[in-house]
Amino acid sequence: MGKKTIHVSDFTGQVLSADDEVVKVVVLEHPDLVAGPVQLDATPVDVESIDDAALDVAVVEIHDRHGHGEPRRVVLTASEFDAMATDVPMAQLPAPGPDAARRGHAAGALPGRRRRGGAPPGPARRGRAALDPVRHRRLRPGVRPLFG
C-alpha cells in the first residue's frame, strides 16, 4: 500500500502536478481568523497577485493603560501614519544603530524592556492555560507528570 499526496491551490482550487512549484503562504492575521495562523498552498502565479495587491502599511504597537498590560497592534496605511507626524517626517526619525540587536532593541523590542527569551506574556499565558488540562490528566496515578 502507498500514499499519494495531491497538492491543490487553496486560492484557485487548481490541482498541481508533481512538476509544479508549490508555494506555502502563511496568513498570520485576518479578521476572520480566530484560531491563529493558517498555512495555504498556492502557485507562483497566485503569489504574484498577492505581491501586486500589497499595500504600504505601518504596523504599530500602542502601549497604554487601555490595553490592560497588553499592547494593541494597529495597522494603518503608511500615508495615514505619516500624516500624524507633523513635527518630523517618518523618514527622518532615528534608525536603530548597528548594536541595537546586542542591546535587545531589535525585532520589535522596546528600549528599556529587554527580552531574555521565552514567550511574551500574552502568548505564554494562553500556552499555560492550554497545558493545564493536559497536566491535570497526567497527574493520575501511574502516569509520568509533565515538566518534572
Could you say how many structural domains there are in total?
Answer: 2
Helicity level: 25-40%
Globally, the shape reads flat
Number of DSSP-assigned strands: 6
Task: Give the strand line-up of the largest sheet.
Answer: 1-2
Class by SSE composition? alpha+beta
Terminus-to-terminus distance: 41 Å
Please identify the oligomeric state. Answer: single chain
Outline the biggest β-sheet.
2 strands, antiparallel
- Unreliable stretches (pLDDT < 50, length at least 5) are 102-115
Secondary-structure element order, N to C: EEEEHEEHHH
The total of helices stands at: 4
Radius of gyration: 22 Å
Average pLDDT, all residues: 74
What percent strand?
15-25%
Describe what you observe in this structure.
- This protein is of the alpha+beta class and 148 residues long.
- It folds into two domains: 1-53, no CATH class; 55-96 and 117-136, no CATH class.
- The protein contains four helices and six strands.
- It has helices at 44-53, 78-84, 100-103, 121-138; strands at 7-8, 15-16, 23-27, 38-42, 57-62, 72-77.
- The strands form three sheets. The protein has a two-stranded antiparallel sheet with strand order 1-2. A two-stranded antiparallel sheet has the order 3-4.
- Strand 1 and strand 2 (15-16) form a beta hairpin.
- The longest helix is centred in the C-terminal third of the chain and has 18 residues, at 121-138.
- It is flat and about 70 Å long.
